[in-house]
TrEMBL record:
Taxonomy, superkingdom: Bacteria
Annotated SUPFAM superfamilies: DAK1/DegV-like
Keyword Lyase: no
Function: May bind long-chain fatty acids, such as palmitate, and may play a role in lipid transport or fatty acid metabolism.
This protein's UniProt keywords: Lipid-binding
GO MF: lipid binding
Keyword Ribosomal protein: no
PANTHER family: DEGV DOMAIN-CONTAINING PROTEIN DR_1986-RELATED (PTHR33434), DEGV DOMAIN-CONTAINING PROTEIN YITS (PTHR33434:SF3)
Protein name in the entry: DegV family protein
């Protein structure tokens, strides 16, 4: 029996790849006002961005423990080995909750192999990881072999380079001060950030989105490896035009041919806002 790959909605995988690789997606929760929505089930990215542009505030919370346990038990009852790849523990408590629930389920089903992995990543940073794991699973690799592959590649070499269109959303999440957000918005300053050890870290500030795209490609050149052949991820906050510009710049610079382009989903988008542009690739 092949290993089942599970991840969650913040991985921002396109529906066609979820279907192609038979990946199970557990939803995080988006909260607006007094209403709670399952990400990708009750609310989708475009609905979120429309609400944010109209002044709504959004928060998020973890996968409900009962929903997570139900998923783990379902596969355990089938004797199905599985790997759950979780949103970074530096961003969410989902990994810690999953580890506790996995241990509870493992006590009841001690002969079923279950793995919970802290991706140390967000969005397609671990969406690409799930694709790679699913490809290995479809080729009959064991859970241990898949876990080892992820440990030596994606878990240690995944780069996230991204920018946001409006610093206000990062300010709401406590990532920048209110004063910095105001000044940045007035001057059209775009922060360039990355993820380091699973946490959000600023790199620099640049004025103007076109310059940001160029800088993202420059950083990719400095840090990337095998850029012509690896699978590259690009996500955007309802701004496909910028995503396509970034793709074209990467193709021109490196001859890259393999891309996954998708919207930043409602979970991550609640914190990054419309106009986000993110790039994911493997480094040296």
């Amino acid at each position: 029996m092949n290993v089942k790959i599970i991840t969650d909605s913040a991985s921002d995988l396109p529906d066609e790849l979820i279907t192609k690789y038979d990946i199970d997606i557990m939803p995080l929760v988006v909260i607006m006002g007094n209403d709670e929505f399952y990400d990708r089930e009750d609310i989708h990215a475009k609905e979120l961005y429309k609400a944010l542009r109209e002044g709504e505030m959004a928060k998020t919370s973890q996968i409900p423990p009962a929903r997570m346990k139900e998923t783990f038990v379902k596969y355990a009852e089938q004797g199905q080995p599985f790997i759950y790849i979780a949103l970074s523990s530096g961003i969410s408590g989902t990994y810690q909750s999953a580890s506790i629930i996995k241990n509870e389920v493992q006590e009841e089903f001690p002969n079923v192999q279950m793995e919970v992995i802290d991706s140390k990543a967000a969005s397609l940073g671990y969406g690409l990881m799930a694709i790679s794991a699913a490809e290995l699973a479809s080729n009959g690799k064991t859970a241990d072999e898949i876990k080892q592959h992820l440990s030596t590649t994606y878990l240690t070499h995944m780069e996230h380079i991204f920018t946001v269109d409006d610093l206000e959303f990062l300010q709401r999440g406590g990532r920048v001060s209110r004063a910095s957000a105001f000044v940045g918005g007035m001057l059209k300053i775009k922060p360039v950030l990355h993820v380091e050890d699973g946490k959000l870290v600023p790199i620099e500030k640049i004025r103007g989105k076109n310059k940001v795209v160029k800088r993202m490609v420059d950083i990719m050149k400095e840090r990337g490896v095998n850029l012509q052949s690896q699978l590259i991820g690009i996500t955007h906050g309802d701004d496909l035009e910028s995503a396509e510009k970034l793709k074209s710049a990467i193709q021109e610079a490196f001859g890259s041919e393999r891309f996954v382009i998708h919207e930043v989903g409602a979970t991550i988008g609640s914190h990054s806002g419309p106009g986000t542009l993110a790039l994911f690739f493997l480094n040296k």
